[in-house]
Amino acid sequence: MSRIADLKLTHTLLSVDDDGIATVTLNRPEKRNALNEATIDELTEIFRALPRDGVRACVLTGAGDHFCAGLDLVEHHAADRAPEDFMHLCLHWHEAFNKMEYGGVPIIAALQGAVVGGGLELASAAHLRVIDDSAYFGLPEGQRGLFTGGGATIRVADLIGKSRMIDMMLTGRLYRGDDAVSVGLANYRAEDARAKANEIARRCAENLPLTNFAICSAISHMQNMSPLDAAYAESVVAGVVNTQAPARARLAAFRDGSGPRIKPTQG
Ligand code: 1HE
């Protein structure tokens, strides 16, 4: 079983602070954090370990001026892969990204520069995305003679809809700034995306871990189900989450007036 302390990382950095907030950094800035096979291996191990080691929230970043330039095109060209080899590579990407989306630990991506191709596929496996003014989203596969293989047809289409995704792929259209927020690629725009992502991660970490597990796992699972099955699964998850012992103190605080009230002005 993977533990954070046992991980041997070369292309990524991982730290966890005293509040249980992890920071995962893609660390190949000289290659614009392109995703080679070894980086995907490391992400798989990291996101396998995080939920088991009690991490409460995670910030995902990229070193340098760009979050991620997608598939390592140079490695792909050199490997001259057979179709079945690339299929297995894609399945490996899915393994890593599914561990993120379904792992139950809130992941907040802090994005700058290029968030393109597989880089967008990676960012869309996070639960929330924060951009700075340098960030731009693209799916340049169409222009490279390629196709998405890391889950964009599911996650990017889910974020922005099929028609916008097809436009991005056919024409190379990029989204940035307020447009990226309004189409749903980003949740927040900030001057300092990393600081904002940290602030959000800390706010998420104030929730009970079991509640966050449900938010960052059950909602995705339920989207894969029929409405009837999703409603049934929701009732089962709510049965477990809404009766957890640590929630009783929060409910008691609400009852006696000491618990927080929702303020119309909160962000
Ligand atoms: C790379 C990669 C890469 C940079 N694979 N090595 N992704 C793309 O089509 C994006 C390809 N990259 C770019 O368009 C540009 O590099 C950027 C806009 C991201 C950055 O531009 P710039 O001018 O800052 O950097 P650069 O000079 O282009 O690249 C710097 C180095 O990074 C250079 O290596 P060097 O050894 O010559 O210095 C580049 O080769 C290297 N580099 N991007 C490998 N992607 C599961 S299917 C997923 C499908 C996809 O993701 S398709 C990929 C889409």
From TrEMBL:
Name a GO molecular-function annotation: enoyl-CoA hydratase activity
Instruction: Indicate the family of this protein.
Output: Belongs to the enoyl-CoA hydratase/isomerase family.
Query: Which PROSITE patterns does its entry note?
Result: ENOYL_COA_HYDRATASE (PS00166)
Q: Is Cell wall biogenesis/degradation among this UniProt entry's keywords?
A: no
The organism named in the record is Paracoccus jeotgali
Q: Show the InterPro entries listed in the entry.
A: ClpP/crotonase-like_dom_sf, Enoyl-CoA_hyd/isom_CS, Enoyl-CoA_hydra/iso, Enoyl-CoA_hydra_C
> Which Gene3D superfamilies does the protein's record reference?
2-enoyl-CoA Hydratase, Chain A, domain 1, Lyase 2-enoyl-coa Hydratase, Chain A, domain 2
Residue spans making up a coiled coil are none
| Protein's recorded name | Enoyl-CoA hydratase
Biological process terms in GO annotation? fatty acid beta-oxidation
Instruction: Enumerate the Pfam families for this protein.
Output: ECH_1
Give EC number(s), comma-separated. Answer: 4.2.1.17
Q: Which SUPFAM superfamilies match?
A: ClpP/crotonase
Q: What's in the keyword line of the UniProt record?
A: Lyase
For the protein in the UniProt heading, the enzyme class is lyase
Ribonucleoprotein in keyword set = no
